[in-house]
UniProtKB/TrEMBL annotation:
Source superkingdom: Bacteria
Residue segments, region Disordered: 1-26
Name of the molecule in the record: Glycosidase
One of the Pfam families matching this protein, by short name: Glyco_hydro_130
UniProt biased composition (Pro residues): 1-10
Family: Belongs to the glycosyl hydrolase 130 family.
UniProt KW keywords: Glycosyltransferase, Transferase
InterPro entries per UniProt: Glyco_hydro_beta-prop_sf (IPR023296), Mannoside_phosphorylase (IPR007184)
Amino acid sequence: MTRPCPPRAPENPSSRSVAEAGPAIGTSPVLTDNGLLVMLTNGATRTVHEDGTVEVDYRCGQIAIDPAEPTKVLARLQDPWLRPQTYEDTHGLVSNVTFVEGLVKFHGKWFAYYGQSDTTLAVAIADPAAPFGTGLQADG
């Protein structure tokens, strides 16, 4: 069974494990015509196997917030834009983890530098001129 992992608020936040961590901001937000774009490391799914073992994977999402009212979410990406797929993403110190930490615009393309399973680093390149995924969907 695969379902979203609900964020938990433990009594002692310093004792949180990777599996208990809620959404985290990955890169510095980017101001766009559609709002302030925030990259998130979240969207973790938890698969509980018949033998009782639990497998978790961490994916990257995006939200757009109103720069004038930062608590107002304007839109959110409906599907993760980055998720564990390669061998390096799925095998490592903490397997099945992708987390974006750097975002650079260079020659009209976006370069997102991300960690793979807490072991290696990689870069995902997005060309805004090329269509991608399901896009942002307005909230409300």
